Amino acid sequence: MADLTAVTVTYNGLPWIERCLESLRGVDTVLVDHGSTDGTLELVRERFPDVRVVEQGNKGLGAGLNAGMRAAPARYHLLINSDAWLEAGSLERMVAFAEEHPDAAIVAPRVQNPDGTLQRSVRGWPTPWRVATEYFFIRKLAPHSRALNAYYAGDFRHDETRPIDWFMGSCFLVRREAADQVGMYDEEFFMFWEETDWFWRFHEAGWTIWFLPDARETHVGGASHGGRMYAENVKNLVLWFRKHRGEREAARVRRLLKVALRLRGLAFRGERGRMYRDAARAL
What we know:
The chain has 283 residues and is α/β, with parallel strands linked by helices. The protein contains eleven helices and eleven strands.
């Protein structure tokens, strides 16, 4: 296999980190830990002594992945969440595809839930209209249409090898040459939208992002944060617009989100309603 290192970031990664690292047996792997207290490091050192461990303070997911890539420079990096694992042969297929497509900065696998059902991972670039279709639930009127659900790539079947805008980055192959050109993750994004920012910079520099359904990954989803960082998510969406579309567009999106989240806070009771109200106040 081509020169490659896998990188994963953990913060209390049990119970899924063992499954993740088992899928990477035989692959040079770096694990960056952000202060786990649940026995993650003890398990890794006992069961996976070949995995290099980097311990640092929690500066966010992107900062952790950056640290792992810096610790082990390679031609390719496989970046994988601690609650995800690859099917046998998938990594080899991703590397072979990247070798055949020198313009590919990123190669992404098809993602499935633990029960084997499709996890829709492909997304369209954010726009104010696409944000509105998500946060006002407009997309639910026609969830499989591009007009009302381009944000979630509603018309994308996840069974075709093709270039895409971006995707939820629970596992993907990145070409180090491309990363060196555009820079690594922007660590201002603590969690959420850091991959969208990175993929946009690849896109702007002329690189391509590919979806490869012949490579498959299982992703638990939300295991690392349990949905507790919703406010961080919406704040970083505004940050993405400020960085790539300017302050005026970011202000429009912030106002849109505030209205949508306040309405959601009124419509939903209990913890979910409080989550929306807290996010609106955070903006």
